[in-house]
Design brief:
The protein is of the alpha+beta class. Helices cover 34% and strands 24% of the residues. The protein has four helices and five strands. Strands 1, 2, 3, 4 and 5 form a five-stranded antiparallel beta sheet that branches. Strand 3 and strand 4 form a beta hairpin. The N and C termini lie far apart (71 Å).
Amino acid sequence: SMTNEFNLVIWTATQGNRESISSEVVNSDQMGGSIKKAQIAHVILSIGKTIEQKDHKMATMTLLKSRIGQDGIIWNNCSFDNKFLKIDTETQTTLLGHQEEKVKSNANRAADAFKRRQELLNR
């Protein structure tokens, strides 16, 4: 109501719930507190970090909601630390594309592990 009264924009932050801890992509259903925050918002950005990303001062940023343009965009492995944030828009993908990449990555990882195991057995 304050934004309407004074005709201004407000940026704020909210924490994620327990499910969001160490998530690479934090979705709107992982927001802590009331769902009203998400319903009122015009733009929702999430920042998620896996343990590996934390070690490398990286994060995955997701545009979850946008009333002013396209949403569902993910920027993987943005440089991120407390002093500095760099968003590399060259590596953007969509939420669906991100899920498909994870499935491929997991399949490749399993195939690579099987291949290494076969090589060890053949020695």
